[in-house]
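hey m, so remember when u said the tokens were messed up on ur end? i reran from scratch. heres the input so u can diff it against urs
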Amino acid sequence: MSWSLESSENGIFLLINGLRALDLNGTALGSIETAKPGRNATEIWIQFSGKKNGKRLDRTKYKSTNGFLKELDNSPSNSFFVDKLREYGVGNGNKQNGAKSRKRKRPEMPSTISLERPEDTEVPDEVKYVEGKFVGQFEVELSRLQVAPANYRSRNFDSSWINIIKDTILNSPGGIVTVFPVMLDPSISDPSEFKEEHLHEKTLYTLGGNHVIQAIKRAIEEEPTNAGLDRYKLVRIDLYVGLSTEEGQLLANMHNKRTMTKKVFFQDLVKQARCIFKSAGDDWREAVVPIVNQIQESSNNHSLLFRVISYPENLFEEIERVIDIWNTGHPMEEMQQKIFKSLSGLPNDASLAYLKKINTVADINRTAKEIDRRKRTEVLQKIFLERTGCSTWEEACDTFDDISEKLERFQGLNITRKFIPKVLLDFIDDVKEYRETNTHLDITIDLDHNLKDHPAVVKVIQEHKLKLQENLLKVVRNISEE
């Protein structure tokens, strides 16, 4: 990446590779207001009008444009460079009383254009730490980029999405405008040991933008003589050295959130966070949060994600299988989280049994409904036992005729820990009172023995049996009151 300066009647402006520099939102930056020597012998820090944040630039990458400030092409020092800008009205950023601020503000993650420099309070500690492993922005051949190992990536490949991007490139070729986060071969673990020769000698692993890169490679494979694809063969990268797997995933999520080409779905976060759960030991929650916060807002409750990724291995294998079923059927959609919420509170063996029943996308929602129905049934039974004094549900069924079928009518009630609808309590009290004070009533209806088990006959008996009992109980209650 080269940079230069441009003069106009409105001031001096920064150019990146010959184009006006942009902020993270794609808006052109204003004129340069302040320039200072940076943190090392070749770094220049520049601040722009109307912006709190600035940019750190490598002085050795400065290449004048249109002859403006050509004398800075080979400037001997940062001080010489900054002093020359003073002659054009660029300030030094000192406070009004002349005292220089000694507070050094750290840069944010590399953006599509360059490095931002926000306030300390805006940058999480884990991001600041990764900054120290950034060694520069470079232009490399696309063919040099390899897919990072799975434990460094934020998600698996979606072949259908790759093909969509590839077809777009072939139909309307444009060019690459993003900068890809890339990790140097882990055999070099110390950023201070990095040399530019390593760009050609060591493997370069892409952490973000893998779908785009694979799409370009497929397009070139399909149409190797298409000259319109030549513009894609050189890409810009932000290179990092010595990243851990968690840091690699953090960078990948930051890139995906910033580019927003394909959303990172909940099912992607589940697989990603599971890798961290298995590798981070007892501190896995602290390791997971900053990474998923790049996709989900930090205010979000991660309890569902935490619960899913901490299942035992045999149960999580089924979770992964169900996720794969969803991704096969709906590769471009976020998986419905209802099934994971429904599993909450079930014993692991029960959860495993339900998950094994899922073989299609339709089974996912159907199983979630089945689990919810089971939970509501258990709640109704528990309330009934507490209200009637029965010890077990078997005892309740022996004592009260058809009670399981009768309770089914209350499946739709909204029951919470603090609220039990009066209609349910009245029903239980009536059933209990009727059983304690009345004898059993048999009603006999003569039917052709061939018809008694017919579904239509059974349905009528079940429906009207309950209605008859309800009406009788009301009559009995009224008579008792009289």
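this time it looks ok to me. The longest strand covers residues 134-141. if urs says something different then somethings off w ur setup not the seq
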